[in-house]
Design goal:
Blueprint: E1 10-14, E2 20-24, E3 43-46, H1 54-64, E4 77-83, H2 91-99, E5 102-113, H3 123-132, E6 135-144, E7 147-154
Parallel strand pairs: 3-4, 4-5
Antiparallel strand pairs: 1-2, 5-7, 6-7
Length: about 160
Amino acid sequence: MPPSIYPARTCDRHSREGNDITVVATTEPQDADRLGFASGLVVQEFGWGEDVDDDLREAIEEITQTDLVDEDYDDVCDGVILWWREDDGDLTDALVDVQTVLDDGGIIWIFTPKPGREGHVGHSDIQEAGTTAGLHATTTFAIAPDWAATKLATRGRGK
């Protein structure tokens, strides 16, 4: 496996003997490459708040080599990230809205607080909202210390 292009956070701590040790965090957004974004893609961000993971945002920008565009962007985009918390409103409505800005084949990721974190959204709630919006959850994994990522895709017709 190639080394991560994202720098690990370190901090100095003193052991009982007084020696410095370096602790490397294990929950960096090093899986940002699993999101399927590539250089040159335009990714629109919805639901930004003070609680979002800035390291993850920067990792996505590093992959795409472009800044994330905000909710006011007035063109189609290649992908969407949606930060969503339990009290943010109607998830189905939000999912319908984000689909209107996507180019054909665009990627939708919803980032929700992990279980036990304030604002956690249950996977069944994401699935239900996605189904109602014509989407289905295909992948879910921990993406940052406090956030889980769920990929949503359009429902294809049977072949």
